[in-house]
Amino acid sequence: MTAPEGVYISPAQTYQEVQQLVQAVGRLEAKVDRFLDEVKDIRQDVSDHEVRMRALEHGNTERQRAETSRLETAESRVTSVERRVWAATGAVGVVCTGVGYLLQFINR
């Protein structure tokens, strides 16, 4: 067989190049698969982050519910103390008024 004009590529060389391409495609395929797995992990992380952010925004975390409960308890106790202080102030006013009238009656 005589070589044609120009470049001659034998079937063995063609087979070798195809095999190298198969290996290169296999490596690329592995890299793409790893990349897709990483993207899947990132999407799961973002989704989890979104869920936690929504819970924080709406006050649905355990810590926020406990804090709200603690604040409501403290507020009810403060309201109770305020009520007692005003009642005591009123009672002192009535007693002082009564003592004032009593002293006026005694001084006559």
List strands and helices in order, with pairings.
Blueprint: H1 11-58, H2 62-107
Q: What does this entry look like structurally?
A:
- It is rod-shaped and about 150 Å long.
- It has a domain at 11-60.
- By secondary structure, it is mainly α.
- It is built from two helices and no strands.
Globular, elongated, flat, extended or rod-shaped: what is the shape? rod-shaped
pLDDT average, as an integer?
89
Radius of gyration: 44 Å
The separation of the N and C termini measures 151 Å
Helix content, binned percent: over 70%
Helix/strand-derived category reads mainly alpha
Number of helices, counting only DSSP H or I runs of 4 residues or more: 2
Helix-strand pattern, N to C? HH
Largest sheet: none
- Our estimate of the beta-strand percent is under 5%
Poorly predicted runs: none
Keywords, separated by commas or semicolons:
single chain; 108 residues; mainly alpha; 0% strand; rod-shaped
Q: Would you kindly provide a brief summary of this structure?
A:
With 108 residues, this protein is mainly alpha-helical. It has helices at 11-58, 62-107.
